[in-house]
Design a protein that fits this description.
about 20% strand, nine-stranded mixed beta sheet
Length: about 325
């Protein structure tokens, strides 16, 4: 059922869209900036855009502020071909998220403004307005659970998705600055993980849920044994461990000359799911996700850097295989 839903190639994505600013030209420090590159950001929006670039359909469920930044994000969703029928505008003191990050690795700085974030205003009514039967799978990233009413709304979306037979795909995406406390984060993210069919996270995120980074892989194994059909445990330069059907498969990464550390996780998720939708094996889907991640960290921007299908195929044809692990 899980792979059949993904094969429909039509994804409902829940979570934030925002504006990204990065000093231009690449390599410039924010404190020295005279010009900025502007692009769409936000983990869920990036995933949604990446899926469309790879030939799938996606719709985003979120809230944006009814102002110039929110309107910019709506326009960018349109430009990428992401359905924004379920993006609501809100008025008040809340604002759409803004990220300022550097296209550089040395002393990299990312500054993210999420005080009174507009996307946290997403309500149960917003998710109940969705026609879940129109989609094949639901995707969300962990930040959506960091505050109310977004938290309760997303758990309600999980209920409605399950009732409609949609698999739930969860990117842990733990961002400490969004949460009131680590204890609440661990409890809520673990609850979300227990309800999910596919879970993707890095070693630090699984370690956080386990209470000790050394126990992260054990936590991933526990989730794979108890509830999730697929768990992808990412280890950065060390590759990934994929737990599915009672087996563990290790894969390496595609070496690249990175210009920034951001966007890899979102691109991995888009590439991984698009590959599963195209009926690639689980092993190859992880490798294609890894290739997408390598492509994105080697270019400025996040959503703009994500590959389309032709670019991904050209990359795979022209680059050596992944590192051994």
């Amino acid at each position: 059922m899980i792979l059949e839903g993904i094969a429909k190639r039509n994804f409902l994505v829940i979570g934030r869209v925002g504006m990204d600013l990065s000093p231009d030209p690449p390599g410039t420090r924010t404190r020295d900036a005279e010009c900025m590159m502007v692009a769409m950001g936000g983990s869920s929006a990036n995933i949604a855009a990446g899926l469309v670039k790879l030939g799938c359909q996606s719709a985003l469920v979120t809230s944006v502020s009814d102002d110039a930044v929110g309107w910019y994000c709506e326009g960018q969703l349109d430009a990428y071909g992401v359905d924004r029928s379920y993006v609501s505008r809100i008025r008040g003191e809340e604002r759409t998220s803004l990220a300022v990050y550097e296209t550089r690795l040395e002393e990299h700085q990312s500054v993210i403004y999420r005080n009174n974030a507009a996307d946290f205003r997403m309500t149960i009514e917003d998710v109940e307005a969705v026609d879940y039967s129109a989609f094949g799978a639901l995707i969300t990233a962990g930040t959506v659970f960091a505050a109310e009413p977004s938290r309760s709304a997303t758990f309600r979306a999980f209920e409605l998705a399950k009732a409609a037979g949609l698999p739930i795909i969860f990117d842990v995406d733990y961002r400490p600055y969004s949460w009131p406390s680590p204890q609440i984060a661990a409890e809520v993210l673990s609850r979300a993980g227990a309800l999910s069919d596919i879970i993707v996270g890095n070693d630090e995120e699984f370690g956080f849920m386990a209470g000790d980074i050394a126990l992260g892989l054990d936590k991933a194994r526990e989730l794979a044994a108890s509830s999730a059909a697929v768990v992808v445990y990412k280890m950065g330069a060390e590759g990934a461990v994929t737990l599915a059907s009672g087996t563990e498969t290790r894969t390496g990464i595609f070496p690249t000359e990175a210009v920034k550390p951001t966007g890899a996780g979102d691109s991995f998720m888009a590439g991984f799911l698009a590959a599963l939708a195209d009926r690639h094996t689980m092993h190859d889907a992880v490798l294609r996700g890894s290739a997408c991640a390598s492509i994105v960290v080697a270019k400025p921007g996040c959503a703009p850097a994500m590959p389309n299908t032709a670019e991904l195929e050209a990359y795979l044809a022209s680059h050596p295989g992944p590192t051994d692990c």
